[in-house]
Amino acid sequence: MAQDIFDKIRKNRGPLGQHSKGTQGYFMFPKLEGEIGNRMIFRGKECLVWSVNNYLGLANHPEVRKADADASAEWGLAYPMGSRMMTGQTSEHEALESEISDFMEKEDTILLNFGYQGMVSAIDAVVDRNDVIVYDSESHACILDGMRLHAGKRFVFKHNDMESFDKQMERATKIVSNTGGGILVITEGVFGMAGDQGKLKELIDFRKSGKYNFRIFVDDAHGFGTRGERGQGAGEEQGVHGEIDILFGTFAKSMASIGAFICGEENMVEFLRYNMRSQVFAKSLPMPLVVGARKRLELLKTQPEHKNRLWEISTTLQKGLVENGFNIGETNSCVTPVFLEGNLAEATNLTFDLRENFNIFCSIVIYPVVPKDVIMLRLIPTAAHTLEDVQYTIETFSKMKEKLDAGEYKSEEMAAVEVDK
Fold it and tell me: Strand order in 32-33's β-sheet?
């Protein structure tokens, strides 16, 4: 007799789900309320928040709020109905794509309803069973899930390790010499957890050397709008922006909205328009989101003070943490990880202390995302933060670390929290 699938689920809740009863509503699925900014309401009281991807502080910019409101009043949320290919095409969608292409200095752009969904579907469309994917081990979940649809081979190289990349490319090249397929290299511009940039220049140098022939697909969700002189991303900063074949960016980080895009040469983008199942068979991006994205892109281009402010906050925060003895890894982006030693109970107890006694809300990352006995606190600086916020956080983290080192967070159980369901 077949096993009852629900019985299997009850017995194995997954590495995070096994803690759902003690964490949901607090450590998992917390509710941050009020206007998006450096301070929001958590469980009825104001907290200093370092967990919102509002890099340029545009979420509550008055011009953005007005554009969103005016577009919602004029169009509603339903228009346009249907997929872009059928009945969901508008001049506004075309205009946004054209403006992104111009800003990114790429031939063409396709809008995506959601970044995660779009990345999965793009990988599925670009490669077939004869092709091989070579990807960085720290690639985002959307990349991993996209590769699950791939019927061909895929090889992973150690994170930002060019010797490992070389070895995997040798394996991939041998396979495609028999299948007649090609090689797609996938990496990230800025890795969203640890904050370090992908070695885009080194990867492209391999191609320039003539040793390997491949196309490169870069997910630069965290680099778009924050890195490079213009804000084109990590490729611009590393001097190889024009040589990235398929470039992915999202509206969910710097532009504080919903949606994403892929840009590149016209032939490739046109192929995606007709072959990305997530776009062909999904409703078009609602008009208010498109109009709002155009306004956000305009501000990104014309008001560099937001990016400058973001980097003032980020640099001050990271420099202060290092000077106070904290390990922030190899970050060279705004993403600011703080690595500590401790077990699961210590992680939850110190996070509880930060939120309840110091009114600081930041994300906690534990195994299996990071190795066992490692606690990573992930801070996302934004242009909405202040230098006073930075100073208070560094002072608080110093106190927290003293308590951690003294064993004050040790416990056999995680902090008990009463959560309103």
Answer: 32-33, 39-42, 45-49, 360-361
H-helix or E-strand containing 86? none
CATH number at residue 366: 3.90.1150.10
Q: What is the CATH number of the domain that holds 103?
A: 3.40.640.10
3-state secondary structure of 179: helix
- 103 in Cβ contact with 297 (< 8 Å): yes
The C-alpha atoms of residue 85 and residue 200 are separated, in whole angstroms, by 34
Same-domain status, 328 and 264: no
* Residues spanned by the domain of 112: 62-302
Q: How many CA atoms lie within 13 A of 48 on its CB side?
A: 19
Q: Is 329 left (phi over 0), alpha (psi -120 to 50) or beta?
A: left
* Best CA proximity match to 169, nearest among 139, 128, 133, 210: 133
Task: Quote the DSSP letter at residue 16.
Answer: T
* Amino acid at residue number 307: K
What is the per-residue pLDDT for 19?
Answer: 66
Q: What is the mean pLDDT of the chain?
A: 93
> What is the full DSSP assignment across 52-92?
---TTS-TT-HHHHHHHHHHHHHHTTTPSPS-TTTT---HH
pLDDT at position 421 is 41
Residue 262 forms beta bridges with which residues? 110, 248
Asked whether the predicted pLDDT for residue 415 surpasses 70, the reply is no
Of 254, 261, 219, nearest in space to 108 by CA:
261
**How large is the average pLDDT for residues 68-90?**
95
Tell me which residue has tokens 């090889």: 155
Summarised one tens digit per residue, pLDDT across range 326-369 is 999 999 999 999 999 988 889 889 999 999 999 999 998 887 77
Nearest to 258 by CA among 230, 282, 287: 287
Residue ending a domain, choose from 302, 334, 369: 302
C-alpha to C-alpha distance for 241 and 257, rounded to whole angstroms:
24
Q: Residue 86's Cα: distance from chain center in Å?
A: 30
Is residue 415 domain-resident?
A: no
Tokens of 400: 């927290």
